[in-house]
Amino acid sequence: MSPASGTSNLDPQELAKFSELAHRWWDPQSEFKPLHEINPLRLDWIDRIVGLNGKRTLDVGCGGGILAEAMAKRGAQVKGIDLADKPLRVAQLHQLESAEAAPPLQLAYELISAEALAEREPGKFDAVTCMEMLEHVPDPASTVAACGKLVRAGGDVFFSTINRNLKAYMFAVIGAEYVLRLLPRGTHDYEKFIKPSELARFCRDAGLELRNVIGMTYNPLTKRYALGSDTDVNYLVHAQRPA
Ligand code: SAH
Is the CB of 146 under 6 A from ligand 1? Predict the structure, then answer.
């Protein structure tokens, strides 16, 4: 267990990868362009389900804060956590730039693992989001379990990740990293992709009830992302802790 994080569920190489690129996090034309482009879609989807205004919301693996800050702008009280130091500092700097907002954003960041926070503040959050992060951790089931512990009874949990099959390999690795060059090579490791059935099992094991699984697709001709029924490559999951 790493003393700073309170968990062994981390891959130092993955964290280093995100720290190295952190200064470009808010550049919408950078390596993080896909996160900027999918953000309005996932934000609206979450907001429709949760009603973010006034809700205590936790963003696990928040990185530079693209989703965390957007949820705070919708009126949520947001905490963002990550184990990579530089992305968190970028998130805090960006928050200063957005500090002119009225009413001021309720947004705080901390370098702590989901597992350690779940020990400290179980059941504290109305909603927990954990997006594009599970495919970067050694033990995603442990992260899902922590999210299940962090949300209150009746609260909502959201995950997004990448499916594991030949099509996902062709689109998410070969297509995105080699052909379209949307992402740097080595961003994603096929072995760590997660099938919806596996994520559903992690949720059940965490005491969460699966509510919905939706797909997210990228059209290389229009260069647009859309939510829909095709979960073959990217997908999002909504689960709930029973009331
Ligand atoms: N969730 C954000 C960022 C996704 S990038 C978004 O969708 O906009 C993946 C993030 O997961 C990076 O910030 C990385 O540092 C973080 N991460 C990787 N392993 C982690 C771990 N074990 N605990 C917490 N965060 C982790």
Answer: no
